[in-house]
Amino acid sequence: MQEERYFIGQILWDPTIINKTIVTPSDFQGEQERAIYEAMLALSRDNGVVDENSTAKKSGVPLSRIIELKDSNVISSTWEHYQKVLIDTSRVRAIKKTCERVLKSDLPADALVDMFIEETQDARGRMIFRPCALPTCIEESIAALEARIESKKIPGLSTGYPILNSFIGGLQKTRLYYLGARPSQGKSTLLMNLVANCNVPCIIFSAESSKTEFADRMIIREKKISSSQYYNGTLTDADAKKVMEASSELYDRDYIIIHDEPNIPLARLIQIARDAKRYNKVEAVFIDYVQLLTFHDQSRPKNEQVSEISKQLKQLARELDVPVICAAQLRRDAEGKKPQLSDFSDSTQLERDADVAIMIYHIEKKEGDDNNRETFLLIEKNRDGRLGYIRMDYQPEYMLFREARDQQIPKKKD
Questions:
Q1: Is a pLDDT exceeding 80 seen at residue 190?
Q2: Structural domain range at position 58
Q3: Model pTM?
Q4: Per the domain annotation, does 140 fall within a domain?
Q5: Residue 47, class by beta-carbon neighbours within 10 Å (0-12 exposed, 13-18 middle, 19+ buried)?
Q6: N or C: which terminus of the chain has fewer CB atoms within 10 Å of its end residue's CB?
Q7: Residues 222 and 250 sit within 8 Å (Cβ to Cβ)
């Protein structure tokens, strides 16, 4: 606990540290040191003076004890090093405690794995973010701009759709994307098309469909094979040849990873995504779909569970420095009308967390006839770009979305 006492001494010499550090009281093992630190935080929050006298009064620890901590040999400029030591030591304690509980538990293997992942979530995901002066931020921003100008590329990964790229700048790192639609309106198909267009290592969590179903759809899309004939096993010789060609071409795309666990716990998804980033160098995470993920606290209302899931997916995008793209269900009363941000099912947190929200919008020309249906991607939220419509050529029989040549916007109907 020498490092804990030294860190407190650093704050006594330089009280501004208390406003910059991310150390929490739970990072202290010593009860007295924790009490002193909690008193310092309280004084800082109340705009009080953080010194020996005020800290002693607030904490109840004798002044003589606190004066001892303000040793003349303490060097306050090294506080970030001691911050890291305290946080790392705290993480080790948390992981060891979880290991002890796992060893004592009689739960089955899968439950123990989930228990370990959930209880070590904070320890594994804790990151230290340092303040940065504006001039440094500007230098980094200009350097990134110059690189884009020189390369003449969009900031993010290509979606495979030029017009969509022009709206959102591709799928950009650290950002959270939501693709919203009612059931059977094409959100899983659109997500699969984005995966198919992704020419970099990526992982898709297919909570709704099995890995075999996902592979079927990729094959069907690749060569525009009739899905009804494919699933019925009534392929023509020409289509059978297309299946072989598509299979051969897709076989080389081993950089696409599929995880098809139904109702996957959020904690496990996060851990698998971290492993995929570390070992497979994935550059994008796709999820189908967000409302099917399982939150560890099932006693909470569904809207609160989805809200927490969305917050953690937003954090995951920043932590892994990749885009996270999620399909999302819309509410039942969004059926048959132009979708809006407020239509996301179960939680309004989705619309708040989204950097980009894209809705699938079908307009029926003749009721019940898919051939007489116009399809649009409606960009309802875009933090750094414009909003609007993109007319799509949607061919559900071939699991295919393409941008239409005619980009005439829909006539106002609502």
A1: yes
A2: 2-125
A3: 0.72
A4: no
A5: exposed
A6: C
A7: yes
Q: Are residues 117 and 247 in the same domain?
A: no
Position 366 pLDDT exceeds 70: no
Q: How far is CA 407 from the centre of its chain?
A: 31
Q: Do the Cβ atoms of 255 and 301 come closer than 8 Å?
A: no
Is residue 263 located within the same domain as residue 119? no
pLDDT of residue 385: 81
Which range, 124-138, 192-206, 365-379, is most confident? Answer: 192-206
- Same structural domain for residues 18 and 164? no
Q: Are residues 101 and 174 in the same domain?
A: no
Could you tell me the pLDDT band of residue 193, with boundaries at 50, 70 and 90?
Answer: very high
The whole-number pLDDT of residue 335 equals 74
Can you tell me the distance from the alpha carbon of 274 to that of 312, in angstroms, rounded to the nearest whole number? 13
Phi, psi for 326 (deg, rounded to 5): -120, 135
89-115 per-position pLDDT tens digit: 998 998 898 999 889 988 888 788 877
The amino acid present at 201, given as its one-letter code, is P
Q: Is 414 within the bounds of a domain? A: no
Domain count, the chain: 2
Report how far residue 87's alpha carbon sits from residue 90's, in angstroms, rounded to the nearest whole number: 5
d(CA 16, CA 13): 9
Strands 388-395 and 400-403: antiparallel
Q: Which domain CATH number covers 211?
A: 3.40.50.300
Q: Looking at the structure, do residues 233 and 334 belong to the same domain, yes or no?
A: yes
Q: Indicate whether 219 and 365 sit together in one domain.
A: yes
User: Do 304 and 365 sit in the same domain of this protein?
Assistant: yes
- Residues 170, 94 share a domain: no
